[in-house]
Amino acid sequence: EPEVTQTPSHQVTQMGQEVILRCVPISNHLYFYWYRQILGQKVEFLVSFYNNEISEKSEIFDDQFSVERPDGSNFTLKIRSTKLEDSAMYFCATRGQGIYEQYFGPGTRLTVT
Amino acid sequence: AQRVTQPEKLLSVFKGAPVELKCNYSYSGSPELFWYVQYSRQRLQLLLRHISRESIKGFTADLNKGETSFHLKKPFAQEEDSAMYYCALSPRQGGSEKLVFGKGTKLTVNP
Fold first, then answer.
1. Which of A5, B74, B80, B88 has the most CB atoms around it within 10 Å of its CB?
2. Would you kindly state where each structural domain of chain B is located, as residue ranges?
3. Furthest C-alpha separation in chain B
4. Residues from chain B contacting residue A35 (CB–CB below 8 Å)
5. B81 by DSSP, 3-state: which?
6. Within the 14-33 window of chain A, which residues sit less than 8 Å (CB to CB) from chain B?
7. Does domain A5-112 bear CATH number 2.60.40.10?
8. Which of A45, A51, A92 to substitute to test the interface with B, most B CBs within 10 Å?
9. What is the pLDDT of residues B42-92, one digit of tens each?
10. Separation of alpha carbons A73 and B102, rounded Å
11. What pLDDT, in 10s, does the model give residues A60-74?
């Protein structure tokens, strides 16, 4: 069964550094999402992306965050200058046309020191 | 604002016992409600969607708009049901597809 994959599984970075989290969606999926889960807290929506545009973003998704699909396959989340409070599990999810279910990746654990 | 509340952080039952995981939501419109499950070391996966009104792995959930609840039930719990369960809401208003999650309930089914 096709699955969403994410790399890396764990990323450790220093405060102020840029990080790029990568997601490979299920092929033929056209809708992409990023969520994050700070330890002990809820899974929170960050952004949705369709047709090379952001379709919705949360107030968490400020100017430090950006998303793109640079090569038509990977879907990336970039954090320009990481803060300690960005430490969290980041989940990518993707959805096919006419399908309601969002398929989640295994997550990337980001640790900012 | 949309909010999902799962009042129980932990729930422990014995195998064969009924189980009910509670979920209440707050939203002024007509949301779509889901239950997601995360088994140990696995990814989040959809368990149930209120619109489909189906039973998956013996679990059912009924949307009660009057009580704004979407409790998940199973009459006879199995050990393999042990997992983290998340209730989620999708507003669907203005085309929004985001999922708003509750904090989750960790279900442990003891032998």
1. B88
2. 3-110
3. 47
4. 99, 101
5. helix
6. 31, 33
7. yes
8. A45
9. 999 999 988 777 888 999 998 998 999 999 999 999 999 999 999 999 987
10. 31
11. 999 999 999 987 789
